[in-house]
Amino acid sequence: MSVDKDIVCAPDDRLKVECAPIEKIDSKVRSLAKRMLKDMYEAEGCGLAAPQVGELVQLVVIDVDYSGSAGKNPYVLINPKVIAADGPERAFSEGCLSYPGITVEVKRPSHVIVQAQNLDGDLMQYEAQDNLLAVCLQHEIDHLHGVTMVDHLTPGERVAAMRDYQEAVALGARPGETSVE
Ligand code: NI
């Protein structure tokens, strides 16, 4: 399936639910991770959460190193938990494959520690500070709890962002595009 058809775009109730923990890492989970990585690379995103492809389970994929010619360094996080989110808040211009055509300024804690299982079932720990990974971990894990980037905005900012989003969609924005020429 093409990435355009596979990605769930806002507004959609599947982006607003608490996702179920994954109890067994089986072939279904492995093929979901593979499908999500394919979509993420195709859309040139740096992260994707399972509800964004309509699967309401706690799985995210992230690759903050990939930029076309550079090598791939994919992380697959199963049942990720934020152990710490602290440090001074930083504003970052975020995009989301479920909101084609827009970016929004989101403030988040600058330091994060996350624990998650990988596809082998090993418990991994990820720590990031003041970088794209710190932002991406928080953004993607939010998706597993029904929270998207616009939920971090003030009500006024959210109205403006949703107006921009509707305009972008009307102009044909597709997942992975953060502005419409
Ligand atoms: Ni997103």
Describe this structure in words.
There is one protein chain. The protein has helices at residues 3-6, 27-42, 132-143, 155-170, and strands at 47-49, 59-62, 75-94, 104-117, 123-129. Helix content is 27%, strand content 27%. It has four helices and five strands; from the N terminus they run ααβββββαα. By secondary structure, the chain is an alpha+beta fold. Strands 1-2-3-4-5 form a five-stranded antiparallel sheet. It has one domain: Peptide Deformylase. The mean pLDDT is 94. The protein binds nickel (II) ion. The site of nickel (II) ion has 4 residues, from helix 3.
SS strand fraction: 25-35%
Rg calc? 15 Å
Q: What is the helix fraction of residues, given as a range? A: 25-40%
What's the end-to-end separation, in Å?
Answer: 26 Å
When the domains are counted, the total is: 1
Spatial arrangement of strands, main beta sheet: 1-2-3-4-5
Mean pLDDT: 94
CATH architecture: Alpha-Beta Complex
- Uncertain runs are none
The small molecules bound here are: nickel (II) ion
SSE layout:
Elements: H1 3-6, H2 27-42, E1 47-49, E2 59-62, E3 75-94, E4 104-117, E5 123-129, H3 132-143, H4 155-170
Antiparallel strand pairs: 1-2, 2-3, 3-4, 4-5
